Amino acid sequence: MSPLDWVIVAAVLVFTIGLAARFARRASASTDEFFATGRQMPWWLAGTSMVATTFAADTPLAVAELVAQSGVAGNWLWWYAALGGMLTVFFFARLWQRSGVLTDVEFVELRYDGPAAAALRGVKAAYFGLFANAIVIGWVVLAMSTVFRVLFPGMTIFGATEWLGLDAPTLAVGGLMLLVGVYALVSGLWGIAVTDAFQFGLAMFGSVALAWYALDIPEVGGLAGLRAALPDDVFRFTPRLGNPIEGAATLTLSGIAFAAYVGVQWWASWYPGAEPGGGGYVAQRMLATRSETDSVLAVLWFTIAHYCIRPWPWVIVGLAALVLYPGLENPGEGYVMVMRDALPSGLLGLLFAAFLAAFMSTISTQLNWGTSYLVNDLYRRFMVRDRDERHYVTVSRVLTFALAIGGFLLATQLTSVSGAWGLLLSASAGMGLVLILRWYWWRINAWAELTATVVPLLLVALQLIGLDVPFLTSEFPTNLFGIAAITTVCWVIAMFVTAPTSRATLDTFYQRVRPGGPGWRPVAERNPDVQPDTGLGRLAVQWVMGVVGVYAALFGIGWLVLGEPLQGALTLAGAIAVIAILVRSLRRVEAMAAEGAVSA
Asked: How are beta strands 162-163 and 166-167 bridged, if at all?
């Protein structure tokens, strides 16, 4: 890179740190400010922060790899999750905001009671705050290291290519991660969210610029040249059904694999950013919003930006890389190679800065989110109670930095993240149904959720050590059927052989959250003065409309980008109309609720 490129990179880093530092005093006020912005975040900032978190250094590389291996349709390996995202918009976003908890793990002891609830809170805080969080941090660090290796071959630090057994690119990413740890511990969620918005804008601008320059490469020859150079099947938006064929130009799924993705995975498994019923950093942002409508609109904006807007520049670059560098051993590297070969001085630095921004936005959220569990749901709940807020903020800052170091050290021990997605989804299959039903059925208890959390972990562990489990295959995603079924049987049995949650706890939860539906009828009869949500049928219709709208927007933008303007414009216009109707109906419900006149 040229001196101009490095000046741009330095300017972005300095501006990011300065922006985050502005919120240091506010973050110091309390853990509520540090982890939840004092519940004052507007919807557009909360939603943008969500999508910025999912835009990590690994995601453009992953999309480029999917396109190289399975064409545009390869992205259905994550596009299916929009079904669950829209479910959160209409069925759960309002309820999360009403709960008023600081973390989604704290929610456990609002909804349940007794020793089982306390054990569940501790298990989930450790599992998500340490294990799952560390895996995500690890694969993001590895992806950023790949960017460094491709852009700076033969990179040295103080003249050496290796220190303490770690190569120079990995050490450089480690230093960057510690820098992120510093601004995350200083600024809290306010600073993270504001810097997320800046970093997302920069990253999207850089991605669009790269797609433009990639198409301008003579060997690619624009959209026309791209279509002439690649088989038509590469540009299919939907997978073919049938027996998978090695080397096929588009994603081909067996009927059972397709059913697993579309019919099971989106509601059965926990995955960061796509949790059934909301959870993780998505729940953290919903809990930080200033109103129920802000919570709903935040998740709606996140779902649209995440699935419809964000991926198409990456798809274009992935297609160009398929033309320019066929047969790459690691197809994800093709994205970085296009950066290196296509961008002029200045823009290369800007896009590298955009990669740094994407990396920093994800790591800062993972650190703040993971620390919220460790402090609020482990340290404060089980170790040191009744200290002042300054003490817990100080501990939060220490643990933020410690988590940054620990996450980096774990990343140095990983050699591949190719199976990490499947591992997390398999290790949580069957948990999702409990996470959904606990909001709408009073009988779900802590033992049910604890069983649903532990059983899939045990099943995957047994598979990893080579033991055969009846009714269970080892291949992802078809293994989801067996894991989800066994887990469901286990948690249903656990629920019915153990006592239900106490009436006092259920009444308190019902009075605060006001969930609707027939599943709360016995509790509603004890609390006739509570006005619960009504019109679950209306919410179901809105969910279907939302799913149609988001997939229409995804396809419409894709057709426009790939040179089919009429088809794209008509589809996108339909999507905009559907989404506009939904937003209008959401605001109408808010106005009616404010007047106390919500009706079924």
From this structure: antiparallel
